[in-house]
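Q: Could you predict the 3D structure of ADP-ribosylglycohydrolase?
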Amino acid sequence: MYSTSSLLFQSLTAVALGDALGYPIQHDTRPNPFDDPIHEMVEHRTNQIPAGTWSDDTSLSIASLVSLTFGYNLYDLMTRYSQWYHFGDYTPFNNAYDVDNTSKAAIERFDKGTTPVLCGGTLDSDNDNTALKRLMPLAFYILTKNQQYTFNETVADIIHDYTATTNRTPKTFIGSGILTNVIIRLIQNPNKYAMLRAVKEALDYYRSKDQYAAQVPFFEQLEESHFLRQSSTKLRPSSDVIATLNAVFWCLMNSEQYNVAVSKAVNLGSNADTIGSITSMLASLLFAPVTFPENWLSKLQGRNQMKIAVSVALLSDNF
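A: Sure. Here are the predicted structure tokens for ADP-ribosylglycohydrolase:
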């Protein structure tokens, strides 16, 4: 297990790198996802945004890290999300862009006085990856507070309440539980076997809970090696929580290096920023310690923001 201090900064940087690589091509749809692949930081194809610019995935991760630096307080968390949405806090250029509808609706509910744990949407359309994109800081926080960590009801409740600030459906609770547990287990033991055991550990927990058991079969393919080794053309990447996890774990299981996994993720197209961001973060842990490609890192915007957020977090008792 590497030091939390090095892994936290590495993980946040990885979130931003995957996000910035995928953001310009996030709506691409190609019959073969690896036709005309992207391997460099490029400018956005429709917006006037320079290469290396990250989007909401990184902004929400930074906001979450800053909030958790002062403890687990969902009112503070949502206040920071609101400041991002309205004033452009936690962005490279003081302007919030690429705000997904789920985040927007949740923040607007909070602004009107809704309790944070009730801000998340409950419709089928809210079974998306909004909560997944901001889980990395929570995983580090939980591990710091639970040195004898196990995925139990106490931990699950923390994850579910955090998720509920934007997504309040059983599928998103399960998806968040899986991803958070995987992050923590990779921090402890960076290898693919530990990653798959972490998926099973989380699903076994949800199988034991009546309110979640019926939703578990939607995630069971993540335990199947033949699914994770299938052709990329059979993947259907999108912002859906299940489709996102399918794509992320496929990229990780079919790669042996950090940059290979990230390149595969962003070149799937569709929701490339979020799938790229989550894959990049997990790959940085799975293949730790990693050396980020210099041609990616040199163009990454807002690096000082990340350094400051991590430095302050590591001075607290929460990281």
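Q: Anything worth pointing out?
A: Residues 74 and 198 are 26 Å apart (CA to CA).
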